[in-house]
Amino acid sequence: MLKIALTGADGLVGSRIVELLSPDFEFLPLPQSEMDITNVDQVKKVVGDTDFDIFFHLAAYTNVAGAEANRDLAFKINRDGTKNVFDVASAKGKKFVYISTDFIFDGKNPPYYEDSTPSPSGIYAASKFEGEKILSDEATIVRISYPYRASFEIKRDFFRTFKTYLEQKKPLTMITDSLMTPTFIDDIAYGLKHLFNNFTPGIFHLVGGNSLSPYDAATLVADKFGLDKSLIGKTTYEEYIKNKPGLPKLADIRSRKNVFWKMKTFEEGINEIIKQT
Ligand SMILES: NC(=O)c1ccc[n+]([C@@H]2O[C@H](COP(=O)([O-])OP(=O)(O)OC[C@H]3O[C@@H](n4cnc5c(N)ncnc54)[C@H](OP(=O)(O)O)[C@@H]3O)[C@@H](O)[C@H]2O)c1
Q1: Residue 203, Cα to own-chain centre: how many angstroms?
Q2: Ligand 1: residues whose CB is within 6 Å?
Q3: Which domains does the chain have, with CATH numbers?
């Protein structure tokens, strides 16, 4: 069985991947409490002492709005931390898989495929892109977009935020003229299963089967769960980003290289969540 050492195993995305793929791989989580990726000595010791086939790097500073105010920390974790773990894993001759984000595209010229030119527009995006650039051609970069799952108490994904607001009868103001590509995390896991078993260096987009506006996404959530659609107000992208910089406008992300796992549309993902809960 392949041994996969991983950072970020307790996060929104990582914890579901471990949950789903534990029958297939031996996961060796390296939590921040044992190894802060910004601490070079700790990384050398822990990664050096761990026996693994693939290093799977999910850990990141993921707060998009927070990154604007904490630029140095975002770069320290997302760029320098990635360099620290990559240097040690590659010196051991191990395979490396990095999770990146669709935010590295500025959303001005969609659609975006694996070979589209990145142009990050916020600090979080810039720091994640720096992480990509550190890796050699020998690594696999997997870009994901708006990940969501059936349940996770520790951190709300966008789907849970929409649903919770509507359940609590709180108004939501959603953008009508931008696009997002929601990605069911279970699909990311099964796509990764293929990539772990058939390690291929390069960039892959593991992203949802369709793109839609946040307004349409929230409306779909309301429809599927019988919640009150009249709580969903409308706004424009230009209005919205006055208070929230770093959000790409037309995040229509697609893949030409994922020919191995069919990714669900947002509606199919919600249907699956309804089955799972
Ligand atoms: N969530 C999204 O919307 C989204 C979208 C596109 C791409 N991604 C990418 O997907 C990956 C996983 O995201 P996520 O949402 O699952 O993350 P998350 O829930 O915010 O979890 C982040 C993880 O990184 C760990 N971490 C943070 N700083 C660390 C450090 N200095 N040393 C070691 N570990 C550290 C955290 O450990 P602690 O729990 O100990 O703090 C946690 O396990 C990230 O690379 C992110 O950039 C996420």
Answers
A1: 14
A2: 7-8, 10-14, 31-32, 36-38, 58-62, 77, 81, 99, 101, 128, 144-147, 155
A3: 3-276 (3.40.50.720)
Angle of CA points 193, 194, 198, to nearest 5°: 120
**Cβ burial 113-143 (10 Å sphere, 16+ → b, else e):** ebebebbbbbbbbbbbbbbbebbeeebbbbb
Task: For a ligand 1 pocket test, name from 30, 46, 62 the mutation site with the most ligand atoms within 8 angstroms of its C-beta.
Answer: 62
pLDDT digits 0-9 by tens, 113-154:
999 999 998 999 999 999 999 997 889 999 999 999 999 999
> Cα 250 to chain center, whole Å?
17
* pLDDT 10s digits, 62-98: 999 899 999 999 999 999 999 999 999 999 999 999 9
Atom index in ligand 1 nearest the CA of residue 14 equals 16
Split the chain (277 residues) into runs of 10 and give each run's mean pLDDT.
98 98 98 98 98 98 93 98 98 97 96 97 95 93 98 94 97 97 98 97 98 98 97 96 85 98 98 96
Site to probe by mutation for ligand 1, drawn from 13, 75, 206 as the one with most ligand atoms within 8 Å of Cβ, is 13
Tokens, residue 239: 């209005």
pTM above 0.85, yes or no: yes
